[in-house]
């Protein structure tokens, strides 16, 4: 499905339409309308996010044909509601179509038997960031981009590096210097330029903007271009399909920049408009760490915009985001859904990362562990009923992170160790 940028001159000149119903871009705050087929970043009116809009009047038939085709799978099955117009420009590594898994032992420990886990760690780059980058890179390539730059807490940078490489484009990634080595290695192995910054993700964002201004590289920062959210909204499309178009009661989502939460809320609106779901939507729960909780603080204070969180601290790097450019979109979705926002302590993140593995949910990321800790906290507060169906997004694999604190130290034995000693070790 992918065509490298450098090979475009070898491609057929015949268009291969995706059936995209994209019509225009709209200011998420201003409501102003802009041309969709010109390269765009943020709203020229206010610097806030732009959102892609579609003609939803006649798209249902095309979408149902795409979903039923035996030749199509993964994220790009949803092409009529994605922004790329010509299939030749789609840059795909096989992302999407992740399973929604029952987790009975984990659910019992959370006192939430109806918990389901959307396993995003099986995406090509090990996290849900692959969804956003396949859409952003594909659309940017279609509009002529040959060089990218992004600030990243880890997984987004690795995803950009992988998709830019697949497109034959250049990429520069700026990361806080304390990101896990695995994230750094992924970027370098995919041939991107890596710059480590002695600061936080928003510091990386400022430097990323400088690079874009000086070099002309296209900045694909979270919600500072219109199309990463379009890839992320497929989380909502797939979830609706996974549960037979009857949405769950609650979605619990670890929130940094919030693209996935914003994208899912957008997805549900689009699915409702074309008649695939009813008007009943899940309560959206935004989860942050106590050491970095700007969305939670703004929600509790009744604010529509969130002030920067000073001295942000949590080992869950994906939610260590002091300020989100799409803060009002996140907060609007939470409130419109009668949802909530909750901050969890760092030791609970550690505990539930360990517990998730022991209880059969696999080695999850710290961000996922934060979401699990939130489910337990919300059950204790009575914000989630025991009988409700709750979906937690497992945003990525734990293998990219340092080991969680508190793991036991394995014994080291000699090859000559006798059976009695081995039996003693295994208990």
Provide a short characterization of the protein structure:
The protein is α/β, with parallel strands linked by helices and 427 residues long. The chain has 14 helices and 13 strands.
The total of helices stands at 14
Helix content estimate:
25-40%
CATH architecture call: 3-Layer(aba) Sandwich
Structural class: alpha/beta
Spatial ordering of strands, largest sheet: 4-5-13-10-11-12
Mean pLDDT over the residues: 94
Fraction of residues in β-strands: 5-15%
Shape: globular
Q: How many structurally independent domains?
A: 1
Please name the defining characteristics of this protein:
427 residues, alpha/beta, Rossmann fold, six-stranded mixed sheet, 14 helices
Overview of this protein structure:
The strands form 3 sheets. The protein has a 6-stranded mixed beta sheet, sandwiched between helices. It has a 4-stranded parallel beta sheet with strand order 8-7-6-9, sandwiched between helices. It has helices at about 60-70, 105-110, 130-140, 155-165, 180-190, 200-215, 230, 235-240, 260-275, 295-300, 325-335, 345-360, 365-380, 420-425; strands at about 20-25, 35, 50-55, 100, 115-120, 145-150, 170-175, 195, 220, 250-255, 285-290, 340-345, 390-395. Mean pLDDT is about 95; it is low at about 1-10. The chain is α/β, with parallel strands linked by helices and about 425 residues long. It has 14 helices and 13 strands. Strand 10, helix 9 (about 260-275) and strand 11 (about 285-290) form a beta-alpha-beta unit.
């Amino acid at each position: 499905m992918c065509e490298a940028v450098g090979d475009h001159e070898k491609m057929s000149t015949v268009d291969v339409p995706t059936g995209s119903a994209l019509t225009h871009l709209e200011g998420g705050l201003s409501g102003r309308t802009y041309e969709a087929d010109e390269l765009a970043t943020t709203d020229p009116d206010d610097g806030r996010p732009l959102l892609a809009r579609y003609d939803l009047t006649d798209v249902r038939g095309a979408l149902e044909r795409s979903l039923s085709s035996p030749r199509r799978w993964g994220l790009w099955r949803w092409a009529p509601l994605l922004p790329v117009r010509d299939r030749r420009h789609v840059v795909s590594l096989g992302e999407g179509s992740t399973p929604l898994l029952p987790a009975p032992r984990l659910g019992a420990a959370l006192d939430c038997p109806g918990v389901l886990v959307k396993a995003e760690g099986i995406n090509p780059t090990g996290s849900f960031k692959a969804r956003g980058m396949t859409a952003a890179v594909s659309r940017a390539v279609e509009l002529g981009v040959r060089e990218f730059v992004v600030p990243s807490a880890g997984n987004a940078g690795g995803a950009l590096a992988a998709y830019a490489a697949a497109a034959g484009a250049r990429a520069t990634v700026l990361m806080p210097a304390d990101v896990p080595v695995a994230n750094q290695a992924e970027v370098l192995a995919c041939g991107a330029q890596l710059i480590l910054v002695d600061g936080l993700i928003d510091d990386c964002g400022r430097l990323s903007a400088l690079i874009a201004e000086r070099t002309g590289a296209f900045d694909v920062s979270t919600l500072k271009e219109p199309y990463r959210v379009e890839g992320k909204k497929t989380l909502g499309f797939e979830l609706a399909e996974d549960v037979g178009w009857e949405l769950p009661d609650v979605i619990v989502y670890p929130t940094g920049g919030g693209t996935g939460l914003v994208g899912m809320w957008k997805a549900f609106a689009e699915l409702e408009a074309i008649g695939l779901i009813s008007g009943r939507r899940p309560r959206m729960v935004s989860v942050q760490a106590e050491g970095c909780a700007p969305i939670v603080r703004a929600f509790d204070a009744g604010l529509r915009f969130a002030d920067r969180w000073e001295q942000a601290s949590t080992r869950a790097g994906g939610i260590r985001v002091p300020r989100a450019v799409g803060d009002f979109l996140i907060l609007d979705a939470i409130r419109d859904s009668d949802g909530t926002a909750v901050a969890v302590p760092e030791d609970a993140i550690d505990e539930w990362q360990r517990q998730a593995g022991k209880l059969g949910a696999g080695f999850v990321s710290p961000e996922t562990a934060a979401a699990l800790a939130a489910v337990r906290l919300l059950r204790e507060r009575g914000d989630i009923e025991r009988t409700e169906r709750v979906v937690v997004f497992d945003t990525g694999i734990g293998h990219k992170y340092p080991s969680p604190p508190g793991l036991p130290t394995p014994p080291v034995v000699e090859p000559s160790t006798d059976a009695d000693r081995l039996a003693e070790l295994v208990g």
